[in-house]
Amino acid sequence: MQVALEQFKYVLNSLGLLEALGNHPDSFRALFVDSIKPPTARDLFKVTYSIRQPAVVEERHHLPLAKVQDGECPPLTVAMVLEFSTGATVVPPLGFEDTLTIEFLHTARGSLAGQQKKTYPEANAFTVTLRLPLHSTYNAFRVL
Predict the structure, then answer these.
(1) Which of 13, 27, 75, 124 is the most exposed place for a label (fewest CB within 10 A)?
(2) Whether residue 109 sits in one domain with residue 46
(3) d(Cα 28, Cα 20) in Å, to the nearest integer?
């Protein structure tokens, strides 16, 4: 570790940056220290629909996650939703390989029509997909 640090300092010095870093550390902070911001629900998940939805409906489907993000569903947090959906407690530094998606569990049709309607969310950490059941109202979903 010491050798790597010395090489790093040597390169910074050869570029004339080592002295500048020492004199103005706050100016360089953003380059070397990433400010960790908690992820927002809208940043994390892409909503996919079985049929095209109007913008008003799309906004409504982010509502449950937005309420979690705003602290309106204690003790649930966005980090907990992330962990349930992906198995990860934080977003990896390089992000996820696949886009995190939200899908909706529609009423079964055809040969699956006799199955019971889904009540609880499902997640697949391998495909990073969160599947939400459809309920008649937001409050019906929230009381689960």
Answers:
(1) 75
(2) yes
(3) 9
6 and 60 inside one domain: no
- Contact at 8 Å (CB) between 67 and 73? yes
* Domain total of the chain: 2
| Cα distance between residue 59 and residue 78, in whole Å | 17
Residue-number span of the structural domain to which 6 is assigned: 2-32
User: Phi/psi zone of residue 87: left (φ > 0), alpha (ψ -120 to 50 degrees), beta?
Assistant: left
pTM for the predicted model, two decimal places: 0.58
Q: Could you report the per-residue pLDDT of 55-92, keeping only the tens digit for each?
A: 545 455 556 677 777 777 788 888 888 899 888 888 88
- The whole-number average pLDDT for the span 93-112 is 73
46 in the same domain as 27: no
